[in-house]
Amino acid sequence: MGKFRKPLLRKGLAQGIIEPLEPIEEKTRQRRCVHPYLSTRLTPDCKPLMCQPSRHMEDLEMNQTQTITADIDAPLEAVISELANPMSHPSWATAFFEGEAEAVTDSEVRVTVPLMGGPCRMRIDADVDHGIIDIFLASGEAEYGEPLPVRVVRNGEGATVLWTLSRFPGMPESAFSAGCASMQEELSNLKAKMESTS
Questions:
Q1: What share of the chain is helix, strand, coil (3-state, %, to 5)?
Q2: pTM as predicted
Q3: Which whole-number Å values give the CA distances from 132 to 124, 148, 195, in the listed order?
Q4: For residue 134, which of 116, 110, 108, 156 has the smallest C-alpha distance?
Q5: For the chain, N or C: smaller number of CB within 10 Å?
Q6: CB-hemisphere CA count at 13 Å for 76?
Q7: How far is Cα 124 from Cα 89, in angstroms, rounded to an integer?
Q8: In terms of Cα–Cα distance, which of 176, 187, 192, 148 is closest to 68?
Q9: Cα–Cα distance between 47 and 53 in angstroms, integer?
Q10: CA angle, residues 189, 71, 95, in degrees to nearest 5
Q11: Rounded CA gap, 66 and 48, in Å?
């Protein structure tokens, strides 16, 4: 600032025409880097000052999950088609379903599930090109909840099925373990069915 401007600035400050700037606190010099999983404060030279779990992760409630797998010596496309067809599930998932499925639409059927109180609806959303199978179940005429995610991946000349189960709040550990064991048996039935026809 030139020698003529400094006296004017001091005069303005003295007369109250110009308000002095507040001191810049050190915290305002720090830049904050926000990431969905980590909150990291950076100093002006971009060195981490502190790193801690974000509030999002601290407050997040998650369910216990377990992925059941089965290696099937059958063509990938055949395994995906079997899982994408809701009419076929009762033929191998015999511990879960009772009786045969009744078609409602191409992707929705009516089934009997004793564990869910009897009559249910099942819908499957499938991306056969990528082996993505999402299974929806609803008791009676209730709305569908979250899907059961199933994935099918190529394994040499065969396929591997990955079926993820969730333990929801209030479900006893023993019940969840029994459900996982039952699902493993169902996938063994699927494996036997597919390998006998390939």
A1: 30, 35, 35
A2: 0.68
A3: 10, 11, 21
A4: 108
A5: N
A6: 15
A7: 11
A8: 187
A9: 18
A10: 20
A11: 36
Instruction: Give whole-number Cα distances, 185 to 129, 139, 160, in Å.
Output: 27, 23, 15
| Matching residue, tokens 């810049």 | 24
Q: Which stretch of 8-17, 44-53, 63-72, 101-110 has the lowest confidence by average pLDDT? A: 44-53
Structure tokens at 56: 């999002």
pLDDT of 198: 73
pLDDT band at 106 (very low <50, low <70, confident <90, very high): confident
Could you tell me the domains of the chain? 28-60 (no CATH), 64-197 (3.30.530.20)
CA distance 89 to 135: 11
Residue 124: how many other CB atoms lie within 10 Å: 21
Residue 164 in tokens: 């993820």
